[in-house]
Design goal:
The complex is a heterodimer. Chain A is α/β, with parallel strands linked by helices. Helices cover 39% and strands 20% of the residues of chain A. Classes of the chains: A alpha/beta, B alpha/beta.
Amino acid sequence: MIELPDIRDVDLKICWVIALEPEAKPLIDLFDLHPLSNNLNFPVYINPKSGHALVISGIGSSKAAAAATYLKMLFNVQRYVAWINIGIAGFCEEPIGQLFQAIKVHDTARKTSYFPGFRLSKIVKCQTLHTVAQPETKYSEAVLFDMEASGFCEIASMFSCNELVFVLKIVSDTPKSPVSLVSREAIKQLIYQNKNKLREIISRIEKLVNDEKKRLHVPEEVYQYFERYHFTQSNRYRFLQAYKKWKSAFPDGKLARTLAAGNSASELISNLESELFLAVKDWKLK
Amino acid sequence: MIDSIFVEREVLDHPVAQEICKRLKHADIFEIERYQEMFNRRKQNFRIQKQNPALILAKKHDNFVLPAPSGFGIDAQKNYYFSHMYNCIYDCRYCFLQGMYSSANYVLFVNYEDFFKAISDTIFENNNKSMTFFSGYDCDSLAFEKITGFAEKALEFFTNFSSVELELRTKSIVSDTLLNRSPISNCVVAYSLAPSNVAAILDNKAPSIDRRINVLQKLAKNGWSVGLRFDPLIYCSGWEKLYSELIHKIFNDINIEQVHSVSHGPLRYPKEMYKKITSLYPDDKLFSFPMEAKDGIVSYGKEIEEEMSSFLQFELEKYTTRNKIFRCLV
């Protein structure tokens, strides 16, 4: 069990939102996740080293949204983190066990569509998914059916961006093999049998997360100046913009040296800008 | 290349949509209601999406033809533009489209017939006035031609309006559509150009400058009017020499009679657009330049703009007449 006080320091990469315990179990094994506490509203598992966290939401779109929010608040999840909803789904055709990325999610009750995720079409087949309020037994359209994804998509994209919200579904029931026959054990097996594909998907998603983290990263040295000097909100923004330009222009530059003569927020900003202006004559594009 | 096509329900049976789906037979097809539900969605990440854009086939309902921004024209009394497509297969770092749209997916409006109807209406409304229609404002006019076939249809259309000019703005070397037919006197194939090593850094996924020059020289030899577009002018160490060599290289082997016009324009962005683009690529040296923000426009500043513009004008006048040179000031 991991002590609660440490959890907000965890550097997460991927947050999983899973409806059922049998769907979560293979992922808990695969990514070596451990339960966080027994006293939480939703069961939460985590591996601080690999940066994976998982929440079990229960069935339904609103529960998926609530569980995603819970996880976000619990860990103060950053904008660059990817969110994944994986689970079983009904489909009009075999084979059972086929993994899909849902790239269009349609909420049949609210008649709203979402288009989640960077398409991983080189790794996994893409499909439309309908989120329904009751289990689908007629398989009336050539789309996947689940009960959570739309709520998850609506909320998770607020915490990150649309391209880092992924919905993955594994076919568990079809007209030939109805949902009433899907056992807990069968669900686990369906997830386990896709583990290699899942590893491949996660590796690609982690690359996107790392790139996004790099893009949004604000180095510690910037915060040191925010603490040392008084910055208005507007100067804070200006300093950050000037710093990013300066860092890009002089990747090996020493910030302390450039800012040594500054004694106020505006002087610090001015020092960064001055150094950029001095470099204009010999400006390189690379 | 394109692995997913999203098609508006309304155009599923449109012949252009069907032809495109046939051409991209390996792509998965998804039905949507309206392109905006996908394209205009908030919280999209343009930079990530650009790694694998989808194609959206849609119907345009209005604003087929719009007046070109003032300062965009090349001598005509009336200048208009039309956009049958949003976004581009290239990934030029300075491109304003990355700041204009929240999505990097390509939107293609398949109701070409409505564009041509609107263009002919505009022509009749402006009877006796010289006019230029610009294609390639929100996309590249030729880069997607093998898929869309739009330019071919536009050329057929404009043969009926010989007094009206069509400009196809491009960086593409896909020139079969043009070379396989007789040139059309009122069509200008305008190439966006920059010094080779500048383009090698900034014009991601676009053909090299040497290949662009080869094609434009070939088109000119085949009787097509060509335009040279040095827009945006990119500032860097030694820019004078780089632009001078580029201009010399182009004019060295081209029939000057076939050069319809030459234009050059500065690198400028509306402030909010600049903010959005720089946040997408904070590490890019193009955007770490200490730009000047004035009256809501971000630019290199008047001094650099004037210096570059005067230099270009001077260099271009060595090879062509002043009346063919235009300064674009959008």
